[in-house]
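Much of our argument rests on the idea that a fold can be written as discrete symbols. This step matters because it turns folding into a mapping between discrete strings. The record that follows shows the chain in one-letter code together with its fold in token form.
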Amino acid sequence: MEFTLLPCPFKVLTGCDCPACGLQRSVLHLFQGEWGRSFELHPAPVELLGMTVIWILFRRLNSPWAPMVLRWGSLLLAASTLLFYALKLTNGACCE
């Protein structure tokens, strides 16, 4: 079965990647067990998986830190996505 990825509306209109460009390919590689390639395409899915595992462990242990893990993990995820996008912009790899 062959997958057809959805086109990015922002890229279609502007010719430049949006901060989420690469997520679909990254998730597909993550599902195939290609962690490194997934992280290269976009770090968010790998980070989200790690954050979810840590959060579940804290919840199972009834830790009072679970909400803080979720809060800080979300901030880290947002910051790393913006940093990843900024690096793509400075490398010129995001516009055609």
Remarks:
- The chain has a mean pLDDT of 86.
- The longest helix spans residues 66-91.
